[in-house]
């Protein structure tokens, strides 16, 4: 399963730029688009089977390895840092190493999960992939980070929410196996945004009220008018820029985008379930990785979600998870229903 953080519609817009000051960004976007197409054409990977009882496996220590592709597109590259070794002095390698560890800790400490696959999967990452590569992605086995073009995007290891987002695609791959198309694909993307945000909040010890709820904060250069790639709290407001255009994410089913592009709008319509989670967290208060995170994690890993789940199917599953965890008359159950009703998803 190949899942990347930069939506193809954003890369297409950048690829059309003809202003001299964004020539490197346009060239980088064209190359990144070509890479996305070639990978999707070559890769058709089913979700792996997970043996019974894996979700109850006792979490073990992290096992991280960071590699350096040195500007090539050959994976994994040269090993530059293994688990327990000191910092390398290369910001990208050390940010990747730290991000892998922070993500492992959230799943272990909060959800009792033994790494991404539930069985202690080693966490591998490659940095300095390609030349001015404008993306970060999970390729089904490891993380890969580009350095950005320097005009629009900075290096992709700068954002912890991006690292957490991409690794969460692995969690989805090894649990629900949500198809990467249409509403199931938007849910796949949303789950990654949710857990990417939770990794960042858990590390920073931020409450729901203190958190920014931004995905990909710190990625843009100062030449771009934008806060981040996406806003979970206010979808459609993350950026509004002459180069990037306006953030197209809807915040409810009233503005759901029907499109064949972007695998049926997986990066666009994910704004709807993103906002539902944020609303749930706001209603319950405290830390989002507690009750809200437990409900979403239970929904993702319980084994009842169909791979082609719609928003309605997923919403009903979260209500069922809230009932199982907290009771049918609980404030958590009522808050889940209120959140989905606010974004106009019928339960």
Describe the structure.
By secondary structure, the protein is α+β, with helices and mostly antiparallel strands. Helices cover 41% and strands 9% of the residues. It has ten helices and ten strands. The protein has helices spanning 8-15, 23-42, 91-111, 160-173, 182-204, 262-265, 271-284, 291-301, 311-326, 331-342, and strands at residues 3-4, 64-68, 78-82, 123-127, 136-138, 143-145, 214-215, 230-231, 240-241, 245-246. The strands form three sheets. A six-stranded mixed beta sheet has the order 1-5-6-4-2-3, covered by helices on one side. A hairpin with a 4-residue loop joins strand 5 and strand 6. Helix 9 packs antiparallel against helix 10 (331-342). The longest helix is centred in the middle third of the chain and has 23 residues, at 182-204. The two termini are 29 Å apart.
Notable characteristics:
alpha+beta, 347 residues, six-stranded mixed β-sheet, single chain, two-stranded antiparallel ribbon
Which helices and strands, and how do they pair?
Elements: E1 3-4, H1 8-15, H2 23-42, E2 64-68, E3 78-82, H3 91-111, E4 123-127, E5 136-138, E6 143-145, H4 160-173, H5 182-204, E7 214-215, E8 230-231, E9 240-241, E10 245-246, H6 262-265, H7 271-284, H8 291-301, H9 311-326, H10 331-342
Parallel strand pairs: 2-4, 4-6
Antiparallel strand pairs: 1-5, 2-3, 5-6, 7-8, 9-10
